[in-house]
User: What shape does this take?
Amino acid sequence: MSYSPPRDRLWFLRRRAYLVFVLRELTSVFVAWSIVYLILLLDAAVGGTLPEFWAWAGAPWVVAVNVLAFAATAFHAVTFLNLAPKATVIRLDGWRVPNFMISGGNFSAWLVVSALILWVLS
Amino acid sequence: MILRVNRYRPGVDDAPVFQDYEVPDREDWAILDALTHIKDTVDGTLSFRWSCRMGICGSCGMNVNGEPKLTCGTFLTDYSGPVTVEPLRGFPVIRDLVVDIDPFLANLSKVSPWLVREGEEPETEFAQTPEQLEAYKQYSMCINCMLCYSACPVYVLDPDFLGPAAIALAQRYNLDSRDMGDRFDVLSTEEGVWGCTFVGECTSACPKHVDPAEAIQRYKLTAAMRSVLPFTRRRP
Assistant: This one.
């Protein structure tokens, strides 16, 4: 008769790597919040209700959530891009492109797109 | 040095208990040597698996201080203070440090871990270029030690998950130029690659430097492409 241990509900506290993983997954909630916020911003811009939107967005709790969301989304993006080489194996004439070049390419593209958006908005 | 060993004796213990043993703190002893010393000179009832003692057979995987390790390659000098030795997580315990590996073997067989061919038998050997060999060689180094399963919280929480080694082995054949099999229906499922949440600990635990996490993420990309373009086959 074999013994099967009961399910460990606090498994994510047993190892540091598990905890980091769970934190990374939880940041998805803030990514979702950021998307909803941007959709509301676009809706206000299209509907001509930007002053009301900015008044709401200036509320202390919205600012606090957005500061948290910015940090969480940045953490999510960095960990996501760092993991990207795992799923992307590129071979050029038999030579495997090293992981740091794939990550570097992703980070560069992120910076370029961010700079482009900043330029358009300003 | 104190070795705190997890004991489970069916018919005697309702649940595993820890038992402390004092072993000589020898510089050249692996954990497996200390366990063998206990069995030979202190307590002959202690049960554990081992075979080659050189990191090839994959039999002596256990949790050492909470980390899945091959005990033949993990030395007493790597630790200070009591060392806790437990059976691999995620598997039913048969006795002491011996786990039931049948669920693992069942998962392995699901992915058809062999060269699948169609058509007539070839008359000569299959030649491969070094590049073709390199494409899958890493995944062929797996010794089925199950450390990656013990490190994977997804498998420990859901034993229906195929698991890192089985999927890496499937990729070993998927990427082999000689293979003509299609493992899409097994791999592109919730119990297959989509069950993986990319914790990445399978790769960290692997003593042979196989990268199961990479194998799984690569097949996710393949499976996604197959789903978007369902008319494509794996091999033209």
Notes: The CA atoms of residues 203 and 209 of chain B lie 7 Å apart.
